[in-house]
Structures are given as C-alpha cells and as structure tokens.
Amino acid sequence: MTRARTEAQPPSVSPDRILLVDDNLTNLQVLYQALEREGYELLVARSGEEALEIADRAAPAVILLDINMPGIDGYETCRRLKSNDATSRSVVVFLSARGEVEDKLRGFDIGAADYISKPFQFEEVVARVRAHLETHRRQRLLEREKSELGARLGESFRELSDGDVAELIAGGESERVEFKSTLRWNLHSNKSDKKIENAVLKTLAAYLNSEGGVLMVGIDDEGRTLGLAADRFPNEDKLLLHLASLAKDVLGGEFTRYVRTSIHDVSEERVLVA
C-alpha cells in the first residue's frame, strides 16, 4: 500500500511577532521606530534572561538580539534559544557594533541567521527583517504541509488481510487500485524487461504524489490471479528486495519509506501488494 508523504507539529508561532533584545533603551527605541510602521507585533526585552522568558512564552518568528549585555550575553542567549523546542525555530539576528569575522562566525556556529551592525540604518533593519520573515513563513508552510501529510499517512496506512486483498481484486482497477501481471518479466518475450519495471515505478510515483493507492503484482488487467512465480525470483525475499532497490534508486530513499509491501494468498496464488 502506498500513501502520500511527517514530522511532529512544531510549536505555534505568530508569523509577524518580533522580539527586540538590547540593554540600551535608545537602541530599542530606534529598532521599535524602524519596525512599528511595518505592522509587526513587537516585543521588548532588556536582558538575555528576560528575552528567554518572553521568547519561551511568545515564540517570536524573529529575534533581534544584542551581543553585549549584562548577565548572560547574546551568544549564550542564542544557544539557549536554539536548545529550547519552543524557540528553536525562531530566527536569531545578532546586533552589535563588533564587526570582527570571528564574532560573526561564532554567532553562526550557535544558530544565528544574520548579523546587523550598529549604528542601525532603518532601511537595512526593515529589509533584513522582512527577508527573514518571508523565509520563516515558507519554512513554516513546508512544516505544516509535511505534518498534514504525516497525519494523512497515519490515518490511511493499515495492514491488509488476505480477504481485504481479495475484495480489492474483485472490485477491479480504479484510480486508487492498479494491477500488474509481473514486476519485471515480459510474458510475451519470456525475459526480463525494464519497461515493465518502469511501469511499476511510475505507478508508485503517481501514488506518492497524490492521495495514495494500492499496486498489486501478480494480477492481470482482467483481475485474474497469476501469482508471483512468473517473475522467476528464487524466493519472495529476493522479489521484495529487488522492488525496494528499484524504488530507492529511482524514487529516492526519502519517498520509498512511504511504500509498504506485503505478500498475500489469493486464489491459491501469492500476490504482492505495494
């Protein structure tokens, strides 16, 4: 059985929520003035400790973080933000008058996405924040789509019994059910045929990119049960390994994990279901 493609739902994040962190009130005012006209939801913190508390509660999309602060500095604040599930997806942009390459590399190494130098230029701050918000939105959209697909996958995958398979065969082919006489063997030329393998892979790829479906090998177009012996594998494990290798090479390992295979007894023959 093949289903479309899944990871856990990430914490809820407001797409336009920005946390400004700086111990200097003047700097905070400059940043606030630069961004408030853009309509963002702005939060303010005067220390790393306060920033961690606010971020854990509010999960901002972007955090503009000063490096030099009393208490824990920006580097340590960033490290803790990235180690917290609630804030690990927030985009951290460092703010500092320090422009040494080593300082920037250190920031990138612990998870920062960008670096804005002081004194601030309104246009630069707005442009950088806008770009990071757009990237963040796209990432969230991809995560949401993957999560939804994962939920669909969990709901739709179930173990098929021999009786279930027999009922599907009796119902005939449809958009969600397809029969293949063999996996690799051309019954007319009596030899292995890449075109037949490609037809199987094409069906799997189509199911992976849609609502999913069931591919049966060992059933002809009329729904007659032929079994798996015609493919001339020494045993069923070799047949399953051959299909898995084909799918991995052509479709990629990322997607073949959504293809589940099983072999069933139908009309005194063995049938492959994928």
Write the layout of secondary structure elements.
Blueprint: E1 17-21, H1 25-36, E2 41-45, H2 48-58, E3 62-66, H3 74-83, E4 91-96, H4 101-109, E5 114-117, H5 122-156, H6 162-171, E6 177-180, E7 185-186, E8 191-192, H7 194-208, E9 214-217, H8 236-251, H9 253-256, E10 262-266, E11 269-273
Parallel strand pairs: 1-2, 1-3, 3-4, 4-5, 6-9
Antiparallel strand pairs: 7-8, 9-11, 10-11
Helix pairs in contact: 1-5, 2-3, 7-8
Kindly describe this structure.
The chain contains 9 helices and 11 strands. The chain is α/β, with parallel strands linked by helices and 274 residues long. The protein folds into 2 domains: 137 residues, Rossmann fold; 116 residues, 2-Layer Sandwich (Methyltransferase, Cobalt-precorrin-4 Transmethylase, Domain 2). It has a 5-stranded parallel beta sheet with strand order 2-1-3-4-5, sandwiched between helices. A 4-stranded mixed beta sheet has the order 6-9-11-10, sandwiched between helices. Strand 4, helix 4 and strand 5 form a beta-alpha-beta unit. The chain is rod-shaped and about 80 Å long. The termini are close together. The N terminus is likely disordered.
**Strand-pairing-aware structural class:** alpha/beta
Helical region count? 9
CATH superfamily of the largest domain: Response regulator
What is the helical fraction, as a range of percent? 40-55%
- How much of the sequence lies in strands comes to 15-25%
Mean pLDDT: 87
Name of the CATH class of the largest domain: Alpha Beta
Strand order in the largest sheet: 2-1-3-4-5
Structure summary, number of beta strands: 11
Distance between the termini: 4 Å
Which architecture of the largest domain would the CATH scheme give at its second level?
3-Layer(aba) Sandwich
- Overall radius of gyration: 28 Å
Order of helices and strands: EHEHEHEHEHHEEEHEHHEE
In total, how many domains does the architecture comprise?
A: 2
